[in-house]
Description:
Layout: H1 10-22, H2 31-66, H3 71-99, H4 101-104, H5 107-139, H6 145-185, E1 190-191, E2 198-199, H7 206-245, H8 252-283, H9 291-314, H10 316-337
Antiparallel strand pairs: 1-2
Amino acid sequence: MLGRCFPPDTKEKQQLRMTKLCDPAESELSPFLITLILAVLLAEYLIGIIANGFIMAIHAAEWVQNKAVSTSGRILVFLSVSRIALQSLMMLEITISSTSLSFYSEDAVYYAFKISFIFLNFCSLWFAAWLSFFYFVKIANFSYPLFLKLRWRITGLIPWLLWLSVFISFSHSMFCINICTVYCNNSFPIHSSNSTKKTYLSEINVVGLAFFFNLGIVTPLIMFILTATLLILSLKRHTLHMGSNATGSNDPSMEAHMGAIKAISYFLILYIFNAVALFIYLSNMFDINSLWNNLCQIIMAAYPAGHSILPIQDNPGLRRAWKRLQLRLHLYPKEWTL
């Protein structure tokens, strides 16, 4: 959807966009399957908003109460805020495009959604990459001088890196929209012999456009893969060393290391799937209403939800806070009945 350009005339642009969004000829899906996809997407959005909201609330409360927060907590606050905003935006976009297509097809509304979508996705990718980078620097066991110096300075660098990521994501999202706008405005119409039909050059140099749209995905993706892989290898090596010296099979330290390896592996898989789905979605390899395009949307919605549930399960503090919240919610109706 983001990669498609439209002719310069506003009314014709809106008409073409509305036709493209709801053209039944492009739809391969039955009404039942469309309803099912919408239900799955809405469930994923709600789960993601609740899970990320919980993580943000816990660390924000710690930040306010103690006037300070851990570096990992700071990253998680930034990451949770970006994901809540992204999930809310996607849910709002589906609602508006389904109920008021004419309003959604207006230039200001349409491009506002697209700029926000790109910006929040890139922010989420960058923040998750910095979280992986921070864990790698703090946990991995390497003795290189540069690595040890980075470990000493990483706490002070993270706040600057987070705000730099926001600036890079915003600049890139604006750049992507400007590229598409300039490209569309320079796609001159070709008149037919009777001057009643116009053919617009709307998909020239698709590879170049896809490159510009997806440039912001590659760097955080590579950084996340490298740091997560190196951290897994470091933990695996340390676990094997502990196993050779362990006296019992139920060593709590070894179980903690194995749990960390599994959690990071899940993070890595989710991150890669999300980045690939986002790449395909922005590149418009498939029709808007096709099953593959909807599958990309489901994966992109599942990533913030799944990636947020795992820290709640693996982090002892978050797990305890979640159990306390469940207990309060369970007791709350009983207090009203007394």
